[in-house]
Design brief:
Layout lengths: L7 H5 L4 H17 L4 H17 L5 H8 L1 H11 L4 H13 L3 H27 L9
Helix pairs in contact: 2-7, 3-7, 5-6, 6-7
Amino acid sequence: MAVLTFDAAIIIQEDNPDILIQEAEQIGARLAGAKLANSQLRNIYSTVKQVQTTGRFAEAANKRKIKLLIPKLQYLSAREPRLTELSQVLTACIRAVSDETHFTRFAEFFEAIVAYHYAVSKERASGAPQSRRTN
C-alpha cells in the first residue's frame, strides 16, 4: 500500500481543516479496505491521546514519546505490512511537528483517520453505502 501524494506540512503546519478531513477520509478508507484492525490503530493512537490529554506537548518527556513513535511505527509495519501506509503518513507528520499547535493538528488528523477507518469498516461489514461525501 503506497502513499500516493501526501504532504504532511499541509496537514500539520497549515491551518486547513478541509484538507485534513479529505486526507484523513482517504487514508482511513484505504486502511479499512486493507482490513486493518481498529485495535492496531488504537494501539498507536493511545500514545498520542495520552500526550494530548496532558495538554503539555512542549515538555521534553511528551516530545520524546511522540518522536519515539517513529521507530515503533517502523517495527509495527515490518511485522504487519498493512500498516505501511499509516507508518509512512504518521512518520511524515511527526517529523513536521515542531510546536504545540502542530502537535494539536497532528492529533486531530490521527483522530480523524481512526474515525474514518472505523466508520468505513463498520459500513463495509454491514453492507451499507461507503460514500461519506455530503457535497
